[in-house]
């Protein structure tokens, strides 16, 4: 892969679904399908919305180790990014990724106590394409 940020970024931007994984209290991975990230900074930082009351938020508060996965089913390729997930509830983060129509999930709006932001920071990744896997570091 000549340019990881461009190759991976293009794959991610074309996906409407992403998968996030957390670690439960017994050390087992838990994976969940999510909507695509609301915002990304290169291929290192990703922002998602979720419910503060969710099981996943509780798991990330206990153990920040996480991974996210994006899959291009059409060309049978994908990327897994490993890193940490932070739960953000500050005003700036909430406002940054709030979108019109989010009240369907968070009826009280951007200040809904059940609305929070997940910030994923990648440290490395693994890209799969054309029957070949490649590990890469994220600076």
User: What's the total number of strands?
Assistant: 8
Morphology:
globular
Order of helices and strands: HEEEEHEEHEE
Decide which structural class fits the backbone.
alpha+beta
Report on this structure.
With 139 residues, the chain is an alpha+beta fold. It has three helices and eight strands. Strands 1, 2, 3, 4, 5, 6, 7 and 8 form an eight-stranded antiparallel β-sheet that branches. It starts with a helix and ends with a strand. 20% of the residues are buried.
Could you give a short description of this structure?
The protein is an alpha+beta fold and 139 residues long. It is 18% helix and 47% strand. The chain has three helices and eight strands.
Keywords:
139 residues, 3 helices, globular, 47% strand, 8-stranded antiparallel sheet, single chain, 8 strands, 18% helix, alpha+beta
Question: Secondary structure elements and their pairing?
Answer:
Blueprint: H1 4-13, E1 17-23, E2 29-35, E3 39-41, E4 45-51, H2 55-62, E5 65-72, E6 77-88, H3 91-97, E7 115-129, E8 132-137
Antiparallel strand pairs: 1-2, 1-5, 3-4, 4-7, 5-6, 6-7, 7-8
